[in-house]
Amino acid sequence: MNDHFDNVATAFSRKALVYDAFDDININLQRMRRKVYDHFTRFAPAGGHVLELNAGTGLDASVLVQRGYRVHATDIAPGMLAKIEQK
Fold first, then answer.
1. Which of 13, 28, 48, 55 sits most deeply, having the most CB atoms within 10 A of its CB?
2. pLDDT tens, 36-71?
3. If we measure between CA atoms, which residue out of 68, 64, 59 comes closest to residue 87?
């Protein structure tokens, strides 16, 4: 990778431990996420494959798995990937 990508990966890795907490306290973000999930599931049949780029800690991937999708979640930040692996 180049320095820019390394800097981004480092910055997001540092935030990985507290990243989900922002979603936990933000009611508007939770409502928007639910709308996206509902919209997505109306048009994509459960059981399908989903590739999530820039997945962060896997918040969205976890919900889609619960709704019956097979998800491959990726991220540039090793700290974020570690959180995905824990879920």
1. 55
2. 999 999 999 999 999 999 999 999 999 999 999 999
3. 59
**Nearest partner of 17 among 68, 63, 56, judged by Cα:** 56
Number of alpha carbons in the 13 Å side-chain half-sphere of residue 41: 18
Buried b / exposed e along 12-37 (16+ C-beta atoms within 10 A): bbeebeebeeeeeeeeeeeeeeeeee
Cα dist from 46 to 7, 39, 50, 70, whole Å = 36, 13, 10, 8
Question: What would the CATH number be for the domain defined by 3-86?
Answer: 3.40.50.150
pTM for the structure as a whole = 0.85
The encoded tokens of residue 54 equal 């820039």
Rounded to a whole number of angstroms, the CA Rg of the chain reads 14
Boundaries of every domain in the chain: 3-86
